[in-house]
Specification:
Elements lengths: L3 H5 L2 H4 L2 H9 L16 E5 L13 E5 H16 L29
Antiparallel strand pairs: 1-2
The structure holds zinc ion.
Zinc ion binds next to strand 2 and helix 4.
Length: about 110
Amino acid sequence: MMNYHDYIASRSWRQNPARLAELEAAGFRCRICNDDGQANALEVHHRTYANLGRELPSDLTTLCRSCHRVATDHLRRLRYAGHAIAHADIQQPFECPVPLVDPTFKENI
Ligand SMILES: [Zn+2]
């Protein structure tokens, strides 16, 4: 089975009719900043993964790479905003930390 990253890199995603329809509907411009793909390559953002592999044009939004990164980061923050932080189970390297330098050491010049 093809995973997400293989799919996004695949010809079937690049030639997906819904992806091409959304690019055309957006006038081949970022829907946030109106860049035409010169400053940042255009990408097609999934508003939902409900139909991954058989997307509808309404599942997709044309964004430049820069706006896509911001949108993805924003959505990730929203998704995890209410999550409790799991206790980090980090083992301390030393029971009694030792100083990084030996204060009694005298360099022999
Ligand atoms: Zn943009």
